[in-house]
Amino acid sequence: MFDYHIHSLVSTDGHDAPLTMAKAAAVAGLQEICFTDHLDYVPDMWYMDFDTGVYRAVYHELQVPGLRIRRGMEFGLTPDNQEQFWKDLKRYPFDFVIGSVHIVAGEDIYFPPYWQGKTVAQAYTRYFEEILACVQAHQGFDVLGHMTYISKARANPTNAPVRLDDVTDLADEIFKVLVQKGIGLELNTSGLGRSGDFLPPPAFLRRFRQLGGEIVTIGSDAHTAERVGEHIPEGLEILKEIFGYVCTFADRKPIFHKL
Ligand SMILES: [Zn+2]
Ligand SMILES: [Zn+2]
Question: Which of 14, 17, 183, 216 is least crowded, fewest Cβ atoms below 10 Å from its Cβ?
Answer without folding.
Answer: 17
